[in-house]
């Protein structure tokens, strides 16, 4: 039996969402409907109706093994925005039900017992827990808040072993909202190339950068090395988590072939309905509207959270995120981090606000004490109402929250 650690962030949200009046635990921008995909300026007012009609008349076969050609063509276009990058063939893309399954397939396919992986940290738990469950050794490549959550490239070099097979990064980063610029990506690729190591880049929030210019590219847009894999989905940056479509993309056909083989054991093909709707969502004009909408929402809301942090500077701090609608806020009292699990528990009980405790959901209990992941992708008025409740909790209940003494 494979031992898999509890998936803490999902379990936390699952078991507490029912009691929340305000959720700041979600990590995506405010969800959209299928109707929202129709442009207000579109001459074709029956676009969605036509899409549904097409679905209803489509034979419900398994479909192509790698995913529909129309959808993979739209996904390939996402990696063509960088003029310096070579066009990506649809044969270098395979669809999956969400980015989590995409990550699962890549990690399951490329790692085995005795292999070694280096994983950026903090990050989404799946990216380091799953390799461990497979039997691989994992080294955490730790970023530090005092350095703006930057990664030390010399440390990466020191972590490499003879059996290192994979370097795993996340850009933008969950939970900090930090971003790896092109220059850092280029250096990571240079280091990986020197040792023939594959890089997996979880880009589920790409290209949602609200506070950095120029925005970092996808790793597939940084040329010169084929052993690169990018995963993503419609869930986060595109506000369409209900369309369960993600993908794996790589310029190395051998990696894609291996992932297709693993995918066949798990699901054969993706839902034809989901793929058809995803193709509609990824049409160029629609993509532009979705990213513009979510970038503006995140840009506006990150200022709201910054005002909250400034107002409570004696009790909390963060490195302001530059990408994704999330940030990592540390709460302290008298210079000591509060018990973030207890803080989140009492905040939910007293004020109905759901946050995600960092030491439980992004660390081992000793890392990230006092930190919470705060999602600010909701509509601004909902975010403001939630932060008003957090403010009231700090004014009335905060002194009773225990702190860590060591």
UniProtKB/TrEMBL annotation:
Name recorded for this polypeptide: Pyridoxal phosphate-dependent transferase
What species was this sequence derived from?
Aspergillus pseudoustus
Report keywords, A-Z: Pyridoxal phosphate, Transferase
Pfam families recorded:
Aminotran_1_2
Family matches, as InterPro entries: Aminotransferase_I/II_large, NHTrfase_class1_PyrdxlP-BS, PyrdxlP-dep_Trfase, PyrdxlP-dep_Trfase_major, PyrdxlP-dep_Trfase_small
> Which parts of the sequence belong to the Aminotransferase class I/classII large domain?
55-388
CDD domains per record: AAT_like
SUPFAM superfamilies in the cross-refs: PLP-dependent transferases
Give the domain of life. Answer: Eukaryota
Q: Does the keyword Signal apply?
A: no
Entry GO MF terms: transferase activity
């Amino acid at each position: 039996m494979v031992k898999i650690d509890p998936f803490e962030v999902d379990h936390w949200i699952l078991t507490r969402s029912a009691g929340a009046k305000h959720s700041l635990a979600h990590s995506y921008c405010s969800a959209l409907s299928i109707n929202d995909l129709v442009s207000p300026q579109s001459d074709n007012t029956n676009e969605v109706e036509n899409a549904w009609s097409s679905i209803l008349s489509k034979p419900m076969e398994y479909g192509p093994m790698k995913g529909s050609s129309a959808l993979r063509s739209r996904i390939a276009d996402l990696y063509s925005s960088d003029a310096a990058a070579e066009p990506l063939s649809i044969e270098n893309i395979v669809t999956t039900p969400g980015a989590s399954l995409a990550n699962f397939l890549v990690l399951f396919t490329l790692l085995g017992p005795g292999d070694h992986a280096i994983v950026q940290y903090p990050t989404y738990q799946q990216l380091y827990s799953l390799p461990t469950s497979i039997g691989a050794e994992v080294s955490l490549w730790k970023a530090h808040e005092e350095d703006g959550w930057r990664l030390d490239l010399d440390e990466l070099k020191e972590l490499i072993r003879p059996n290192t097979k994979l370097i795993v990064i996340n850009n933008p980063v969950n939970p900090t909202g930090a971003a790896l610029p092109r220059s850092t990506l280029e250096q990571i690729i240079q280091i990986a190339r020197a040792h023939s190591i594959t890089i997996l880049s979880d880009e589920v929030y790409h290209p949602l950068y609200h506070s950095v210019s120029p925005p970092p590219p996808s790793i597939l847009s940084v040329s010169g090395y084929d052993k690169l894999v990018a995963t993503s989905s419609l869930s986060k940056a595109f506000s369409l988590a209900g369309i369960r479509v993600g993908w794996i993309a790589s310029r190395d056909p051998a990696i894609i072939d291996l992932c297709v083989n693993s995918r066949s054991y798990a699901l054969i093909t993706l839902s034809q309905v989901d793929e058809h709707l995803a193709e509609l969502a990824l049409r160029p004009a629609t993509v532009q509207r979705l990213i513009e909408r979510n970038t503006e929402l995140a840009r506006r809301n990150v200022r709201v959270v910054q005002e909250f942090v400034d107002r409570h500077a004696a009790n909390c701090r963060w490195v302001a995120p530059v990408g994704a609608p999330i940030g990592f806020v540390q709460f302290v009292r008298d210079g000591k981090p509060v018990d973030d699990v207890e803080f989140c528990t009492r905040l939910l009980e007293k004020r109905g606000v759901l946050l995600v405790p960092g030491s439980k959901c992004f660390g081992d209990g000793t890392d990230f004490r006092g930190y919470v992941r705060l999602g600010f992708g909701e509509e601004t008025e909902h975010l403001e109402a939630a932060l008003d409740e957090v403010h009231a909790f700090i004014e009335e209940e905060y002194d009773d929250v225990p702190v860590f003494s060591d």
